[in-house]
Queue: 4 jobs
Job 1
Amino acid sequence: MKVDVVPIPQLNENAPVNVANYWIESVVKKSKHKDEAWDFIRFITTPENIKAYTDATKQPSPLRAHVAAQQEDPELAPFVQGILTAKNWYTGKDVDKADEALSNLMAQYILPYADGRNQLRRDAQLIINAATIMQQTL
């Protein structure tokens, strides 16, 4: 079986929207080794180290200077193409709970339907349950 990665279809090609998940490195105020931690963050965020990391992990680079080269990689290109229009998917207070709600939604969605149950009603209820949990974390 041949499997490809493709960009997410867009409803409005003039104003594409993509979803991202950003992680930000920081140092805890109570850390016993603040200087070393900040030194590591400075080290890992230099352009050459970002390139080495993103090349090794096949992740889109956060630096615009790397975008053109990464668009040449057929496996990475669909993800890189959406970088400049990406918005963070979550702005609440409990990302772990929101992520768990989405994971549970997907896990339950792929389960077979019970005999005699309305498929559309079940799927709608799964979405409502996940949305309710996520709403509570905002």
Job 2
Amino acid sequence: MNNIDHFFNKDPVAFANSYLSYLNDVLRKIDTDDIGRFARTLLDTRERGATIFFIGNGGSAATASHFANDIAVGTNSYEKPFRVISLTDNQAIITAISNDFGYQDIFVRQLQILGKPEDVLVGISASGNSPNLILAFEYAKSNGIKTVAITAFDGGKLKLMADEGIHVPTAHMEYGPAEDAHMVLDHLIGAYLMRWVKTE
């Protein structure tokens, strides 16, 4: 039984209080040194003019798109931009690859076309065990692309494979708090980078 099952209450107010309290506990356990390392990686990638790719499935695909928006456009840095692409966003490409080769290839085949050594690949996954993310990480690691895993639960294979990462410590199958925390990371990092650019 995960924590949400444990504190579930048919009173929505009581449930809301418990959920928010638990989410606050989860957020407090995230290692802020890891957040700082990721922010510096993004800044370094911008300095080199390299590209940052985001990938994820389901809710994490939406978070990947949101990250790409907030970093590429939200920072308002156009003379020296953050070159950020979410590989979750082109439905024609994703469905073509899925249909012709299989869903496990939707990210790795895009990376084979767009990725270059010294780029950065950011995988967002609560479980850390999605086969399409693992394939993309394997390709990245053998082709000079730095890997960053943003995970939850126990971190899965991605946490072990990644060059660096941010782990959200939730119980198994707690997708809500995991994805909530991943979006907090998006807005935290986006807010930091936007202000960094302003003070250059």
Job 3
Amino acid sequence: MAGGAPTLSPAVIRQLIEHVADPGADYRRAQARRRLAALTEREREVALALGRGWSNGEIGAALRMTVPTVKGHVSRVLTKLDLNNRVQVALLVHDAELT
């Protein structure tokens, strides 16, 4: 309490503001996570790397894959998620709040 008045922690205030400012965020997060759950573990790793904006070479180095293997995973991620490009995958990962 500050001066006898109850106070909220900064973390609680931030959560409250985020919820009030964007009431659909919880729904979008749940939907995005549900869609990403349809991927295999390796495909999810690739999707998360796309969400970080990594190139195929960076993904390959981090996940110990060749670039052609990364390209194959990216293609399967796009197909399974019914998306057209890497930016859409990155936005989905962002909505899922996994980056």
Job 4
Amino acid sequence: MSVEVSTSASADFVTFVFDTGSLGPAGPPLGELLAAEPPFTYASSGLPLELDGQHAIQVRMSNMSLYNDVGEPTYTGERDIKAAYPALKQVVMYDESEGYAGWYIGYDGPGCVDLARDGTDVVVTIAH
């Protein structure tokens, strides 16, 4: 799995990219989009988490393979991604346990937020 952030003339994107090696026996991961309210914390420790942006959403994915067949983590990327896009400001992993991965996404503006699947990838779109 990897996380990519990008922008276009009308929206910012957070794409959770899953290759075939990160797919579990139950199929591709499932994403859930939730509103998030402060205070934000890291799930495993309960420690406070600072998040840039006027608004926040929570993306929680289930059905995850957190380790491959030889015990290596399937996600080794950044856990705190800063962005200076029109809407998207920050993406932070707050949880990674028991088949779940959770991310907070901080953004500015009144844009509509959408969660969709593109093949095996999960894409969050924030309009601006």
